[in-house]
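User: Run a structure prediction on this.
Assistant: Running it now.
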Amino acid sequence: MAVSFAHTWRSTRLTLEMIKWEHSIFALPFALTGAVLAADGWPHWSTLLWIVVCMVSLRTAAMAFNRLVDAEIDRINPRTATRAIPAGLLTKGFVAAFTLLSIAVFVFAAAMLNRMTLLLSPVAIVVVLAYSYMKRITRWSHLVLGLALGIAPSGAWIAVRGSLDPRIVVLTCAVLLWVAGFDVLYACQDFDHDRANGLNSVPQAFGLRGAFMLARTMHLIMLGLLVWLVMLFHLGPVAAFGVGVVALLLLYEHSLISPTDLSRMNAAFFTLNGIISVVFFCAVAGAVALK
């Protein structure tokens, strides 16, 4: 029994490391932004708790499923060959069970919010799991990943109000383009591998320079949508200042990498994107508090 528990704990720890569960911070602040806007202040603590559980569990399921589905692709890619499944550190069966458990937690948390979140939970599950197959089908898989994270603020709005307001969809579109833009940049690392193995991506289709241009365009439109959001909710100068900081952080992020130098991709992708989402949430929360 002790050996079995130790093995399960080790496998669980390896799975959490594999999916980088701590990077849930990317989308979580945007979900909390949707919740704060829906409540015009801070929602009840129990609502916030179940929103966080929904976010973390569904993101965990999506990442575990992605590693499971992409195991063979990861095995032949030098950048990803050391991941837990292709390296033989985790079995596909364990990761599949972990994925199902995470989905069950998500559905339970959705049920604890309201009827609408429960009814829409299958839609969210399909969206986040579908991404794992998109690279085999379309060069625009980055947009599907963006949608998977972009539905977070709209989902949080529904969690608070039990209905959807078109204004919050503006934030969903902004997050969609933000995520899609940096996923395009991240995919540049696999440019040669994707072309050699017939996998679809924006860099594979348009080249590295074209991918960088498209990512920058996505992020410019994203900033415009954030400005529109500030105007729609009459959030004032505090939120506008937050958008300005986000713009500067995005500019710095793009300055770290180029089509000829991707060596600082992790700093641009992981560190700065986490900061961007937290900065925007704090700005909106502050603006709502000052209303």
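The chain has one domain: 2-290.
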